[in-house]
Amino acid sequence: MSKIKVIHFTIANSGGGITKYILRLWKYIDRSKFQFDFVTMSKTLDFAEELEKEGCKVYYLSTYAEDDREQFELEVRKILKDGRYDVMYLHTSWWRGFVLEEIGKEVGIPKIIVHSHNTNVHIRENQSREAAINLHYQQREFLSEDIATDFLACSAEAADWLYGNKISREKIEIIPYAIELEQYQFNLQVREEYRKKLGIKDEFVIGHVGRFAFQKNHDFLIEVFKEIVKINDNVKLLLIGIGELEDTIKDKVNNLGLKDKVIFTGKREDINCLMQAMDLFAFPSRFEGFGIVLIEAQAAGLKCIVSEEIPPIAFLTENIEALSFDVFLWRDKILKYMAGYPRKNMTEILEDKGFGMKGHVKKIGKILENENYKKYNV
Question: How many domains is the chain partitioned into structurally?
Fold first, then answer.
């Protein structure tokens, strides 16, 4: 039996949550049944060679549809026609139009999946957020149930944001994220090794993982950290990620005299190990569809202080607490935990709740090959 060919739109070199999610699917999917290929808007992918060695194709689009629609359509049609894909899997956060869905239908892709991953727009640096939000709502008015065969979302909030009342709720499947839980279980040896690598001695480490972008709200986190240092300076802030606002945040850190207190790691593939070195996880996002990293942090046994914008579905253990955007409220809460707390193993709890990767991938596999599926045949 030939494999079901799936094309994913899109992955990126930033190592963000959606890309991590897609790559995890590929890692755990039954490769005897499925073949995954990928499309990216990034000029290069650091991990492209590895994917290609595993038999995947990586396609690079030269333009966004809103910048040059004709060229965008030309490139996408060629990818889909040449690849003869059975499933077109679209990962998105907001509507700019329905070009991909329309092309997929036009060339005869049997199954088109739309998967909502967020609750607000994720824009490029040169775009207006207000204009992007307005465009999303305008385009959503034209959304119809025949635009795709399957509608998924990582949370009810992400479903409400992307689909509004245009897609009936019985046609939307809410599928929370999952991770490789065993990789995040607290390990004292790894903790000591990584703290040594990072130059950390007995300091209390506040950690954050996320793109340097408006959504992740690093500016607020730096304000909180500044106030913590005034009271207890035996502390460090560990920031993992890259993004368009990275230099802005570095400048802020330097201007506040916090350079020796903040560690910028850049993009990393060993986040599970870096989390062992942390003592608390801070996540002040302005919006989130779920926040995969919160499963990781809770699995690592970390206390998690998060914004009230985090969907309830992400509150998986007793270790997560939501606060309003009040600098001094965050300061006082973190100072409380700096006095110490027992770090418990949470992986069994998360496994029992269905947040392990193997069970998650089985759900996705069933969607990819369900009764509505017909093999591409032209």
Answer: 2
Which of helix, strand or coil describes residue 323?
strand
Same domain, 203 and 335: yes
| β partners of residue 111 | 87
* 233-252 per-position pLDDT tens digit: 999 999 999 999 999 999 99
> 4 pairs with which residues across the strands?
34
Which amino acid makes up residue 63? T
Asked if residue 228 lies in contact with residue 330, where contact means CB atoms within 8 angstroms, the answer is: no
DSSP 159-184: HHHHHTTTS-GGGEEE----B-GGGT
Assigned domain for 373 exists = no
Residue ranges making up the domain that contains 259? 181-352
Mean pLDDT, residues 299-303 taken together = 97
Alpha-carbon dihedral 94, 97, 98, 99, rounded to 10 degrees: -120
Q: Which helix (H) or strand (E) holds 112?
A: strand 111-116
pLDDT of 83 above 50: yes
Sign of CA dihedral 94, 99, 100, 102: positive
